[in-house]
Amino acid sequence: MNSKKILVVEDNEDTREILLYRLRSMGSYEVLLASNGKEALEMAARARPDLIIMDLKMPVMDGWDATKELRRTEWGKDLPVIALTAQAMERDEQKALDAGCSDYIAKPILDYAILRKKIEKFLGDNRQS
Ligand SMILES: [Mg+2]
Description:
Number of helices: 5
Bound molecules: magnesium ion
Structural class: alpha/beta
CATH class: Alpha Beta
CATH superfamily: Response regulator
CATH architecture: 3-Layer(aba) Sandwich
Protein backbone atom coordinates (compact mmCIF):
# COMPACT_ATOMS: atom_id res chain seq x y z
CA MET A 1 0.00 0.00 0.00
CA ASN A 2 1.26 3.43 -0.91
CA SER A 3 1.07 5.85 2.02
CA LYS A 4 -0.26 9.30 1.37
CA LYS A 5 2.29 12.07 1.70
CA ILE A 6 1.62 15.06 3.92
CA LEU A 7 3.93 18.07 3.84
CA VAL A 8 3.98 20.08 7.08
CA VAL A 9 5.19 23.67 6.62
CA GLU A 10 5.80 25.42 9.94
CA ASP A 11 8.62 27.66 11.14
CA ASN A 12 8.21 26.78 14.81
CA GLU A 13 10.21 23.65 15.50
CA ASP A 14 8.13 22.49 18.46
CA THR A 15 4.87 22.81 16.52
CA ARG A 16 6.47 20.99 13.60
CA GLU A 17 7.57 18.08 15.78
CA ILE A 18 4.19 17.81 17.49
CA LEU A 19 2.45 17.71 14.12
CA LEU A 20 4.87 15.08 12.88
CA TYR A 21 4.14 12.91 15.92
CA ARG A 22 0.38 13.44 15.74
CA LEU A 23 0.14 12.75 12.02
CA ARG A 24 2.12 9.56 12.34
CA SER A 25 -0.25 8.33 15.03
CA MET A 26 -3.28 9.14 12.84
CA GLY A 27 -2.55 6.75 10.03
CA SER A 28 0.14 5.44 7.75
CA TYR A 29 1.08 8.83 6.38
CA GLU A 30 4.49 9.72 5.06
CA VAL A 31 5.24 13.09 6.66
CA LEU A 32 7.61 15.65 5.12
CA LEU A 33 8.73 18.80 6.90
CA ALA A 34 9.60 22.29 5.70
CA SER A 35 10.22 25.44 7.74
CA ASN A 36 9.15 28.20 5.33
CA GLY A 37 7.16 28.70 2.15
CA LYS A 38 10.13 28.73 -0.19
CA GLU A 39 11.47 25.46 1.16
CA ALA A 40 7.93 24.03 0.95
CA LEU A 41 7.54 24.91 -2.74
CA GLU A 42 10.89 23.34 -3.62
CA MET A 43 10.10 20.22 -1.63
CA ALA A 44 6.56 19.92 -2.98
CA ALA A 45 7.75 20.26 -6.59
CA ARG A 46 10.05 17.28 -6.03
CA ALA A 47 8.06 15.08 -3.65
CA ARG A 48 4.50 15.89 -4.85
CA PRO A 49 2.67 15.55 -1.53
CA ASP A 50 -1.02 14.61 -1.42
CA LEU A 51 -1.81 17.34 1.11
CA ILE A 52 -0.06 20.32 2.70
CA ILE A 53 -0.51 21.70 6.20
CA MET A 54 0.66 25.30 5.91
CA ASP A 55 1.50 27.75 8.65
CA LEU A 56 0.78 31.32 7.54
CA LYS A 57 3.28 33.46 9.42
CA MET A 58 6.79 32.30 8.48
CA PRO A 59 10.08 33.95 7.54
CA VAL A 60 11.53 33.95 3.99
CA MET A 61 8.16 33.22 2.36
CA ASP A 62 4.89 33.17 4.29
CA GLY A 63 2.06 30.70 3.84
CA TRP A 64 -0.17 33.07 1.91
CA ASP A 65 2.48 33.72 -0.76
CA ALA A 66 3.50 30.07 -0.91
CA THR A 67 -0.10 28.99 -1.46
CA LYS A 68 -0.60 31.61 -4.19
CA GLU A 69 2.57 30.36 -5.92
CA LEU A 70 1.44 26.77 -5.58
CA ARG A 71 -1.92 27.56 -7.19
CA ARG A 72 -0.10 28.84 -10.28
CA THR A 73 1.51 25.44 -10.91
CA GLU A 74 -0.16 22.69 -12.91
CA TRP A 75 0.55 20.03 -10.26
CA GLY A 76 -0.35 22.22 -7.27
CA LYS A 77 -3.44 24.03 -8.41
CA ASP A 78 -5.86 21.54 -6.86
CA LEU A 79 -3.67 20.22 -4.04
CA PRO A 80 -5.43 20.31 -0.63
CA VAL A 81 -3.85 22.95 1.61
CA ILE A 82 -4.93 23.26 5.24
CA ALA A 83 -3.77 26.57 6.71
CA LEU A 84 -2.66 26.92 10.33
CA THR A 85 -4.17 30.16 11.55
CA ALA A 86 -3.58 32.01 14.80
CA GLN A 87 -6.36 31.60 17.36
CA ALA A 88 -9.11 34.22 16.99
CA MET A 89 -7.58 35.87 13.95
CA GLU A 90 -10.61 35.80 11.70
CA ARG A 91 -8.94 37.97 9.11
CA ASP A 92 -6.19 35.34 8.77
CA GLU A 93 -8.81 32.71 8.00
CA GLN A 94 -10.40 34.78 5.24
CA LYS A 95 -6.98 35.75 3.88
CA ALA A 96 -6.02 32.07 3.83
CA LEU A 97 -9.09 31.16 1.78
CA ASP A 98 -8.49 34.16 -0.50
CA ALA A 99 -4.90 32.96 -1.08
CA GLY A 100 -6.28 29.61 -2.23
CA CYS A 101 -6.09 27.48 0.92
CA SER A 102 -8.68 24.70 0.93
CA ASP A 103 -9.38 24.81 4.66
CA TYR A 104 -7.88 26.03 7.93
CA ILE A 105 -7.45 25.08 11.56
CA ALA A 106 -6.57 27.39 14.45
CA LYS A 107 -3.29 27.06 16.36
CA PRO A 108 -2.67 25.85 18.97
CA ILE A 109 -4.53 22.74 17.91
CA LEU A 110 -6.45 21.54 20.95
CA ASP A 111 -8.40 18.73 19.36
CA TYR A 112 -6.50 16.61 16.88
CA ALA A 113 -9.65 14.70 15.96
CA ILE A 114 -10.75 17.86 14.12
CA LEU A 115 -7.51 17.97 12.16
CA ARG A 116 -7.87 14.29 11.36
CA LYS A 117 -11.40 14.84 10.03
CA LYS A 118 -10.17 17.67 7.86
CA ILE A 119 -7.34 15.54 6.47
CA GLU A 120 -9.64 12.58 5.86
CA LYS A 121 -12.10 14.84 4.06
CA PHE A 122 -9.38 15.24 1.40
CA LEU A 123 -7.45 11.98 1.58
CA GLY A 124 -10.01 9.48 2.80
CA ASP A 125 -9.71 7.28 5.87
CA ASN A 126 -6.11 6.12 5.98
CA ARG A 127 -6.13 4.03 9.13
CA GLN A 128 -5.34 0.37 8.91
CA SER A 129 -8.36 -1.73 9.82
MG1 LIG B 1 4.76 30.74 12.18
